[in-house]
Amino acid sequence: MSRKLISFDWAIKRILRSKANFEILEGFLSELLKEDITILEVLESESNQERRDDKFNRLDIKVKNQKQEIVLIEIQYDREMDYLQRILYASSKAITEHMKESYAYAKVTKIISISILYFDFGDGDDYIYKGTTNFIGLHNKSLLQLNEKQKELYKVENVENIYPEYYLIKIKNFENNSKDSLDEWINFLKNEEIPDNPIAKGLLKAKETLDYLKMDDDEREEYERYQKSLHDQASAYESTYVVGRIDGMKQGIEKGIEQEKINIARNLLKANIDIDTIVLSTGLSREEIGRI
Known about the structure:
Layout: H1 8-14, H2 22-33, E1 38-42, E2 57-64, E3 70-77, H3 83-97, E4 110-117, E5 128-131, H4 148-154, E6 165-170, H5 181-191, H6 203-209, H7 217-270, H8 275-282, H9 286-290
Parallel strand pairs: 3-4, 4-6
Antiparallel strand pairs: 1-2, 2-3, 5-6
Helix pairs in contact: 2-6, 7-8
């Protein structure tokens, strides 16, 4: 029997910042990035400031991967129309925040931006997308490579290793069929469920730590308020965007029908048809026809 688990976005804000629970995030990042990740610290940046009315769930952390590179990861849960521009701004800001004034540009920190998207985003049927930067020749389509001196200076093998990396996880596109250990994580992110014997790194710890029943009364009450606020935000989005779009379509159709009546009346006037016949044919009033 599955136990109710705390949602991942709530855990990011309240639980996973603790060093005792780094194993959970390390497991998720290791499965997604396909290498062992060790969290060094949660960064004290503006984006990590916790506010009761904060609608963003974002965590900036400093990690160490197998190549001993320092990587900044930001995990985001958000609902915005201009989301691509927002993550571009956030990654750029993270670079400047962690770049010391005296450092040469070769010391620019690698940024990996991970977005967990619970809303419809973009036109694509996969549930995990990765974006990188490369330079392609306009004429011969060759991929620009680093020379040996640059590799030594930058401590990377490829151009794309220098620039920010973006992962977009479209939760709604996941079909609840776990094929590998990463899918176990995606299933948890979507359904807040973890199998009894998970194979994915960090999930066993998550199953123990994120148990809803282990919350005290105050924590449970605050969690329920948070969940309600998410539903309220979703309802507001439906009423302002979706319903507004439907109303706009209806208004457009009505306007198109009205314009068609005017066009018919104009043609009938040119053919010297009498006003009474035009009124019957179009449904327009004499006054409306007189203004054509």
